[in-house]
Design brief:
Layout: H1 2-17, E1 20-23, E2 28-29, E3 45-46, E4 50-54, E5 58-59, E6 66-69, E7 72-76, E8 79-81, E9 94-97, E10 105-109, E11 112-114, E12 129-132, E13 135-139, E14 142-145, E15 149-152, E16 156-160, E17 163-166, E18 170-173, E19 176-180, E20 183-186, E21 194-197, E22 200-204, E23 206-210, E24 217-219, E25 226-229, E26 237-242, E27 246-248, E28 251-252, E29 255-261, E30 265-266, E31 274-275, H2 281-286, E32 300-310, E33 313-323, E34 326-335, E35 341-347, E36 359-366, E37 373-381, E38 386-388, E39 392-394, E40 403-406, E41 415-419, E42 426-432, E43 437-444, E44 448-451, E45 457-465, E46 471-478
Parallel strand pairs: 1-4, 2-5, 3-6, 4-7, 5-8, 6-9, 7-10, 8-11, 9-12, 10-13, 11-14, 12-15, 13-16, 14-17, 15-18, 16-19, 17-20, 18-21, 19-22, 20-23, 21-24, 22-25, 23-26, 24-27, 25-28, 26-29, 27-30, 29-31
Antiparallel strand pairs: 32-33, 33-36, 34-35, 34-37, 37-38, 37-39, 40-41, 41-44, 42-43, 42-45, 45-46
């Protein structure tokens, strides 16, 4: 036994000693020598002798899947992105496995991996990240996968303070997952399941949102299947949204805060599921993941941002709770489907551009427009970098509609819907041009929802007042990016 251990240690030591490190020096394509230090392009199969460090924006433009077979891929403060326009690399996947001795390792810190969920032509994209006896760690990061997030063969995945968006399924087979401070949206192609079969999934303050029109959450009857709590959170699963069935047929030791199950709660151990309160579809359907694709920390933290019409003026008020090297804010507006324009600049109210205290700002824009206007803030720091706030919309002079849809047309993949009356409970349905129902939000109590991951095309949104049965239909156009 000692001889075998010494032999294994010797093999690992030789592999590490002969490891070749590939590091980025600028943004660029994976296959471009200019992207890498010394022009040394890494292979698409990373064995134990290959360590790849990415700290620039890299496009994976290779015809083969990226396989981490005992090697390492380390992404820090930037993004590895896969094309979605049909060019080389579109639909490729990442496999993290081992060579029998060395375990493949994928690490992302303050960065991201993006395999866009949709192609530029609006069709569903493919592309998976699969751990097969490998190890994956995401910290303060963002991941988007065209199809699935899979783990098999005693893999280990850890996801901390991050966002995960999936076109289809989340699966764990005989592996171990840790999810702390995570928001997961799956089924964005229209259907997707969350499945645990013989694995252990440990939750801490995590949201699991099945956003398709169908999809089930299953903790199978395999005796090794476990849904557990990691650490000592207030709530293990803070939001759980399931359009289909919730099945538990094995160990469940995790609290569930807000939840909504459109189908049935089934399984031989369904009574173990620890719901902290009654079903709350209004809250869960409106729950949104606050995802920052680069995982980077912005120099300004906005506490609030509102825009309200006051006769011929629009008053904008915003508050910050932290500012770092903040020069100030451009106030920008877009009237109708026009271009964004600067209408004013508000300098930072802080001393030396830094603060960790509450700071209030106000700006009044003369705006007699009869159509809808959108507003946003462009934060500018002293180094010349900038970031945009979320968008706020106001009605024009004389507009009386109780619903605002913006931006419409949309030039990205999302629209926002704002309801005037905050005391109404609604059902909201999204339909395609043929009237087929794509998504549904039941018992919406919030005065706004965001619909994202929309492919280019024409849609309609039907809003039903549950109390009166009154219905309103709004048309939506999503343009190609």
């Amino acid at each position: 036994m000692k001889k075998i251990l010494l032999l294994l240690i010797s093999v690992c030591a030789i592999a590490l000693a002969n490891a070749q490190t590939h590091s980025t020096v600028q943004d660029g394509d994976w296959s471009d020598p200019n992207t890498w230090s010394g022009g040394d392009v890494p292979p698409t199969t990373l064995n134990p002798s290959h360590i790849v460090n990415i700290n620039h924006h890299v496009i994976y433009d290779e015809p083969n899947d990226l396989i981490i077979d005992g090697g390492q891929l380390i992404i820090t403060q930037d993004t590895l992105r896969f094309p979605n326009d049909g060019s080389t690399g579109t639909g490729r996947s990442i496999m993290v496995t081992n060579d029998g001795i060395n375990v493949g390792f994928l690490s992302v810190t303050n960065g991201g991996i993006i395999m866009p969920i949709f192609l530029t032509n609006g069709n569903n994209n493919s592309g998976n990240i699969k751990a097969e006896g490998g190890r994956i760690v995401f910290i303060n990061s963002y991941a988007e996968m065209g199809q699935n997030w899979e783990a098999t063969a005693s893999s280990h995945r850890k996801y901390i303070n991050s966002c995960l968006k999936l076109g289809e399924n989340y699966t764990n087979t005989n592996s171990t997952d840790t999810l702390q401070g995570v928001c997961i949206e799956l089924g964005l192609h229209g259907s997707g399941n969350f499945q645990n079969d013989g694995g252990t999934i440990r939750f801490n303050t995590t949201a699991v949102l099945l956003r398709g029109t169908s999809g089930n959450f299953s903790n199978s009857s395999n005796p090794a299947s476990q849904i557990l709590t990691f650490g000592i959170p207030g709530v293990a699963i803070i939001a759980l949204d399931i359009p289909g069935n919730l099945e538990n047929s094995s160990t469940w030791d995790a609290t569930v805060g807000e939840w909504c199950v459109d189908g049935s709660i089934t399984g031989s151990q369904s009574g173990q599921i620890d719901f902290l309160g009654p079903e709350n579809c209004a809250f869960v359907n409106a729950y949104e993941c606050e995802c920052e694709p680069l995982g980077s920390t912005l120099p300004v933290t906005l506490k609030s941002f509102i825009a309200q019409r006051n006769r011929l003026n629009v008053v904008l008020v915003w508050e910050t709770v932290a500012e770092l090297n903040n020069r100030g804010f451009n106030v920008q507006r877009r009237i109708g489907a026009g271009n964004w324009e600067n209408v004013g600049f508000v300098p930072s109210n802080t001393r030396n551009t830094n603060t960790n205290s509450l700071v209030r700002y106000e700006f009044t824009d003369y705006n007699p427009t009869k159509g809808m206007t959108q507003y946003r803030l462009q934060q500018l720091d002293v180094d010349g970098k900038s970031a945009h706030s979320n968008i706020r919309a106001v009605r024009g002079i004389g507009q009386v509609s109780s619903i605002i849809v913006y931006p419409n047309p949309s030039n990205d993949d999302k629209v926002n819907i704002v309801f005037d009356d905050t005391n109404v409970i609604r059902n909201v349905s999204l339909m395609d041009i043929n009237g087929r129902k794509l998504r549904q939000w039941k018992n919406v109590a919030n005065n706004n929802i965001q619909i994202d991951n929309l492919a280019p095309g024409f849609y309609s949104v039907q809003i039903e007042n549950i109390e009166t049965g009154d219905q309103v239909v709004e048309k939506i156009i999503v343009n190609k990016r």
